[in-house]
Amino acid sequence: TTEQQRMKSSIEDAITGLLGTASTVPNSILIADLGCSYGSNALALVSTAVNAVLCNCMQHEQPLPEVCVLLNDLPGNDFNSVAKSIAEFKQSFESFPPIVINSGMVPGSFHARLFSRESLHLICSSTSLHWLSEAPEDLVKRRIPMYDCDDNLRRARSGLVLDAYSRQFRKDFTQFLTVRGKELVPGGRMVISLFGRCSDNPASMATHAWEILASSLNDMVSRGVLNKEKFESFYIPMYAPSDKELRMIIQDESSFLINNIEVHKPLSGIGEVVVTPKMIALAIRSAHEAIILEHFNCSAHIMDELVETLVGQLSSGGLNRQMQSFACLSLCSTM
Ligand SMILES: C[S@@+](CC[C@H](N)C(=O)[O-])C[C@H]1O[C@@H](n2cnc3c(N)ncnc32)[C@H](O)[C@@H]1O
């Protein structure tokens, strides 16, 4: 994906930082990708990292370390397909200087421990860390919907909803940093990118990454296509932080030093003209289909109607509201 391409130079810098120019390097390097998904992109980040290891070692005449790549996602991910991609990935390195590549798949949530203590050298993750571990507890407990069907109530509570989401993200991301800090070797690196938002102003239009989806679902509720009570208990477990928020959480948690945080528009650099509302609608569908079908207990044709509703909203100005940003973070674990 574009996001993965954009992370390339940060991953290369991380490998340079790890291996440097010394005549000795570690015997083995462990690299993990969190939220790898499946299909052609699943090994893109680890592939960049392995190439960077090869380049660094050849350039500085260092002995080649063995490399182990570990692919993580939730247990429901299509790991059979990942296994096939791993086989192709190993083959693609056969024509290089002989480098030993071992691999493993690690099903589980990145909100908890996944790897042995002080075992990893590099952790990568693209477009996954904006997923929360659960819906914001405060909202669920107090039965405050993420998106009230009543316009006035929704406006009145928008600050409260944003705040609850922000606190849930802080809790999850803090936990994430703490567990990853334990799993990395001292001085290990982490390069991650996630959905973010450009503005710190809670009143700004694009307050939530899921706003367009929520308002489309709301539209379907008002037309009687979806059940109102079900909608009022539906929380999209996703939050897009600002770079300022990320900095504060990382500093407060203190396992990592920030090398660099870059914020950019999601579609910049790939020719914005080629992106149509339909493409965005389909991407939103694929990211949220499973949780929507499960929560509303509805049939798959509802998803076609959702796509149409999304296209309608995106075409009538919603596309600009949907424009969030991405943040790419390059971090180094503290010794
Ligand atoms: C948009 S995909 C990104 C896929 C790939 N990294 C890329 O950049 O194309 C997000 C992935 O994060 C995974 N994910 C979400 N929450 C997760 C969690 N708590 N633990 C592990 N993976 C998670 C999803 O299953 C999904 O495969």
From TrEMBL:
Entry's Gene Ontology molecular function annotations: metal ion binding; S-adenosylmethionine-dependent methyltransferase activity
One Pfam family of this chain: Methyltransf_7
Matching Gene3D superfamilies: Methyltransferase, alpha-helical capping domain, Vaccinia Virus protein VP39
Keyword set, alphabetical order: Magnesium, Metal-binding
InterPro entries: MeTrfase_7, MeTrfase_capping, SAM-dependent_MTases_sf
Family: Belongs to the methyltransferase superfamily. Type-7 methyltransferase family. SABATH subfamily.
Protein name (database record): Jasmonate O-methyltransferase
Originating organism: Setaria italica (Foxtail millet)
